[in-house]
């Protein structure tokens, strides 16, 4: 039997068609979503092809399609609107976000169209006036960090296409209630959690033990993105598949609210989270890291 690569791998797979077809074999290119008992491959358009294991004739791993800088810019734009803090300001091609100093993401500047170092100085002044460090969230290919400048918290942007599905048994609300906050455990203000610019946000709960957040925002190219974040499972309920079921429920909600693609941001060292999202069909899109504005001046 032909060996199928691990879930998440991009493959070109040849498989056998029914005997009454005009041709005996056909091919599909996409990411492996399931290996057993049947093989499932999701194409770039979001279609899922299910193939009986015994019908797989040949398979090879193929390189990921290179991500263009414009695609990174569009996704970073949508993601910045989805976690914008409680105060935002556009400064030329930068989006400045402030959330009371809680979470780096809500208190950092995203250089979507970097032009000069004068903007970095203005970013530093803007955050100094609010009494918090001036952090720059520097995405691959949109902002070059000079050699020797220290960076922190490398993040992976992982993406997948969305397909509409039947709603799952996940309770979804527009705001986090006390039960949601109790499971989440992190001391993030509700106004930071619920903030979104030109989009929709929802909070999911499952079995009273798993919680998460999803925000649907639109990129400049018109793509509606679903960003999953704030996923947490109570310690006593882990290793039961709750995180995956919760995320699937949130993404189905997002699909019914117009999202066609989804992303997550994962700290590069978080192997457990990476494995979870890879099993759900997410693949790496690009990386970003935080750098202090004062170190760039």
Automatic annotation (TrEMBL):
SUPFAM superfamilies: Acyl-CoA N-acyltransferases (Nat). The keyword Transferase applies. The lineage of its organism: Bacteria, Bacillati, Actinomycetota, Actinomycetes, Mycobacteriales. It comes from the Bacteria. Keywords: Acyltransferase, Transferase. One of its GO terms (molecular function) is acyltransferase activity, transferring groups other than amino-acyl groups. Signal peptide: none annotated. Residues 143-297 form the N-acetyltransferase domain. This is Acetyltransferase. Pfam families: Rv0428c_C, SH3_Rv0428c. InterPro entries: Acyl_CoA_acyltransferase, GNAT_dom, Rv0428c-like_C, SH3_Rv0428c, YpeA/RimI_acetyltransf.
């Amino acid at each position: 039997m032909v060996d199928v690569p691990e879930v998440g791998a991009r493959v070109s797979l040849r498989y056998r068609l029914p005997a009454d077809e005009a041709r005996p074999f056909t091919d599909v290119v996409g990411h492996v979503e399931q290996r057993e008992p049947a093989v499932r491959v999701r194409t770039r358009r979001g279609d899922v092809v299910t193939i009986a294991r015994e019908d797989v004739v040949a398979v090879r791993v193929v390189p990921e399609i290179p991500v263009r800088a414009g695609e990174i810019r569009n996704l970073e734009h949508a993601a910045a609107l989805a976690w914008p803090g409680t105060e935002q300001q556009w400064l030329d091609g930068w989006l400045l976000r402030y959330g009371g100093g809680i979470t780096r993401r809500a208190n950092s500047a995203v250089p979507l169209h970097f032009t000069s170092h004068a903007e970095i100085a203005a970013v530093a002044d803007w955050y100094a006036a609010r009494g918090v460090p001036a952090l720059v969230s520097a995405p691959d290919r949109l902002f070059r960090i000079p050699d020797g400048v220290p960076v922190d918290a490398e993040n992976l942007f992982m993406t997948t296409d969305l397909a509409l599905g039947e709603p799952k048994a996940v309770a979804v609300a527009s705001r986090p209630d006390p039960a949601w906050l109790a499971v989440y455990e992190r001391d993030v203000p509700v106004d930071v959690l619920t903030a979104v610019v030109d989009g929709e946000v929802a909070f999911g709960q499952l079995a009273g033990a798993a919680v998460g957040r999803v925000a649907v925002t639109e990129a400049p190219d018109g793509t509606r993105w679903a960003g999953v974040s704030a996923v947490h499972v109570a310690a006593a309920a882990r290793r039961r598949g709750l995180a995956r079921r919760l995320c699937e429920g949130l993404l189905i909600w997002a699909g019914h609210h117009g999202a066609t693609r989804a992303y997550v941001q994962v700290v590069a060292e978080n192997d457990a989270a990476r494995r979870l999202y890879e099993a759900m069909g997410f693949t790496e899109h690009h990386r970003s890291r935080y750098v202090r504005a004062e170190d760039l001046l």
